[in-house]
Fold this protein.
Amino acid sequence: MTVHNIRHGDASDGAFAEAVGGRLSRIDGPAKITGAAKYAVEQQLEGLAYAVLVESTIASGKVRAIDTTAAEVAPGVLQVLTPDTIISLKTAADWFGTPPPDKPYCPLARDITFSGQHVAAVVAETFERAVAAAALVKVSYEETPAIVDLSDGKAGDGIAIDAMTKEWGDAQGAFASAPVRICAAYNTPREYQAPMEPHGLIARWEGDRLTVWEPSQWLDGMARTYAEWFGVPFENVRLVSPYIGGGFGSKALALSHGAVAACAAKMLGRPVRLVMTRPQTFTGYGGRAATRQTVTIGADVQGKIQSIVHRGVNETSIDGMWVEPLGSVTSIMYTTPNFSSKQNVVRVNSVVPGAMRAPGENPSAFGIESAIDELAYEVGIDPLEIRLRNYAEQDPHAKKAWSTRQLREAFAAGAERFGWSRRTPEPRSMRDGNQLIGWGVAAGTYPVRRAYGEALVRILADGSVEVESSSIDMGQGTYTILAQTAAETLGVRADDVVVKLGDSRFPRAGVTGGSRLAGVMTGAVYKAATSALDQLVGLAISDPRSPFHALQANTLVVANGRIASPRGDGPDVSVAELLKSVGRDHIEATGDTMPANSTPEDRYKNYTTIAMSVPHTEGDYSRHSWCAHFIEVRVDEDFGTVRVSRVVSALDSGRLYNPKLAESQWKGGIIMGIGQALLEEGIVDRRHGRIVNNNLADYLVPTNADIPDIEVISVGIPDLHSSVLGGKGVGELAIVGVAPAIANAVFHATGKRIRDLPITLEKLI
Amino acid sequence: MRDFSYVRANSLDAARQAAALPGAMLLAGGTTLIDLAKCGVAEPETLVDIAHLKGLDRIEVNERGATIGALARMSHVADHADIKSRFPAVSEALWQAASAQIRNMATIGGNLMQRTRCPYFRDPANFPACNKRQPGSGCSAIGGVTRGHAVLGISDACIAMYPGDLAVALVAFDAIVHLGERHIPVDDFFLLPGTTPDREHAIEPGEMITGIEIPGSASARRSTYLKIRDRQSYEFAAASAAVGIEFEPDGRTIRDLRVALGGVATKPWRARAVENALKGKVLEPDTVRAASLLAVEGSVDHGANHYKVELAPRVVARAIRKLGETA
């Protein structure tokens, strides 16, 4: 009965910036640029105390004793927390919601499994006092030998993760009889998310109610964890996180430092702020696990793949489990009649690794997209051509049709724009003075992860609109695209929509991770707004006080903040006037994307765990985003320095809700990929099992000077199998494939195949 | 951070007196000192702020050379028109150092006092052994992660690299450090670690850098600073070279040559062997390449930093060749 016209066009379908598909600039931008945006730990609270962590200086062993005498009498010190003095917590369920063991949880460690583990904390009246006193805490240890990394002789082969095994045909047999065979090992080091805003929080208790101001990619999941730790109802914990200074996967979970701060606040009866120092961020939570892969490909003389055998290993911690799915791209990028992929994880003395932009797909693509390039040279055909010869017309693993796969279009558009046809095939065949020039290509992909979300849409008496959701904006543009969605659905300007995010009191949302938020939340806001619009039109038609009451219409048009009859033969009033005439000060509706028969338990589980995530191969289709990167590098032949001089990437993220923001996210992913390829590596002192480059002067991320102009091309089409409005994932896609494209370009430039990231100068001189 | 007192000196003499007291340190731009205080290496009892002292930020350039006040900012010196034209290597070294924000704060005097980036030196909590911090405590770097450590001028006590850029150019052109009335060559100002790596500069208690003087020369006028690193900006050198050249009237024969290295040694490293091998020679690629190998004579590496031994001569050769091309 209502009129709503969401256009399901392509990326450029935004007729005007404020509609879905339009290039509206970030509406949170001015607040961030002017400093008006208040980040979590910037809250000014009465009686705030400051906590500072004390970390283990050994990687393996036991805490023998902690001498807090000097710290306790240091000026301004309020309390010193140790495993003996901190209050006891309950173990919380993991992010799958698996029921936890019934044993206490202590966020301060007695058993040391990595260097940098939290062993004590000092709370003082000022941050500086707490830092000074923390240095006075004397910890003595019984040290035992550590397994420092994957290459440690004590590390062993690790644990086979059977759930990662993917096999069809006879991969070993087909390889043995293939006329062309390649086999190589590819390694990626520990990498770190390095968000500009370090991890930290303010925790405040009022009775048995806890408020936590903390940068968060998942308010409801983190609130659940805090509630379970302290044994209070979920509703008693409020997470507030309106702005996040970058997460990249690292801010999705409540971590031990959060538990320490919340314990300190409870014990002290005062709000407590705890912010990690930059060095602490390298061990306070996990970056990307170091990985090892071998990729073995058998092919015919035309380069048609007959067999892929893939073996992967990633590191995890001594007592935690992290699986970085290394076969995720290997198993779907190319068609092959025979395939085998298996994976082990190996325990080392490190913090448990975590999610970092495109976990799994990223290192997986480095393996297969380097290997296919090696195969192209082995067979003697163009690296782009070999990818087309082995193009997967359906998901080779799930044996299902792709929902949409515009990868062929991405190859074509990228190659055209890059000028790929002018490439000379021989390595070292292109140069400019001392600079060897190389052109490389690689593909990337990321699955469409789906879950459910809910949102509230409120039409106020003045005709303006509010949207509320506990989802978050860490820079991707949630505020903006939800305003666009509500504006278009309700026929108002985006300026008239206020989006409120980052408060767990709002309608709930699942994790902002796996590039799922935009698809989930535009759907939820669309449904809520549609429902509010239904109410508005229903009132206008049925309420005796409405000017439309006598019209006997069965629908009305809402546009530009006004409501009118469809044929223009009746009243035409502003939404504000209509609300006034029917005596309402607002209309509101909640919408969600949950299945209709969902129970409250289903909903709680959906928003506080990832157990309800919908598999990307559910039903008849396999759903993924796709991309192709074309990259030019210049390698100084004397110095071995690699500079990326040109990037053209064509990407299929389905329909773009806001192309400007999507392009920005793609470019961010490509920049992060350049860092991964050339610079980023956590370096371990093997004697101490400790990361020594734990700061942003020594852990190198790209600067502006390292980044050339990056051209991104959208080749997506709406994919309604993937989301309500036709979008697929954006945020993680673009990093996938950048590192192999650069490594492939470096090979083309120099004739040297670098299979260990990062590609630093000493590997090329 | 522990408590310290803060004194704002109102004259040069007052600053020197205050800084002579035990535990006192001078504060100018603060870019090194505050960083070192945060990582627990610097623990001053008193900070003597000299940032506002008048007359110490002058930059004067004439035929004889340049004098630069200790409080001149890196960015001001780098952008000074006469420094750019008469001492291009000095300007280029400054532009390629640090970040724009740091260059805008950091002073020339403080720049000379910059300390090593050795990660073991910078992490007292985890690595108590450091002869530079605590004489006699040992060296945590030897046997550890040494990719960024020195291959020249090292000792059994210390292999920490001198990280700066400006001083490399200053050493090449025989600059003089002014410690008030006492003037010493910059090459003597920086000390080799030997058995006393804690002592990095030939500066006595009560002394303060007041400025530097760079003699003008034809080689300084035709000079360059070439800095090689994995990251294009805001990274310390993997290897760098400050090179100046003066040709005979034929435009091919080398009359004077200055070569100094950064990123490879425990102090700014003058490579006189390269200079002597090429003076009087015609600039030819093979000659230059062979002579440049002398830059790393006597080097000792620790495996992970071996690449510096390969890289440094190539950087020197490229810099010389580049200056030759502009003849």
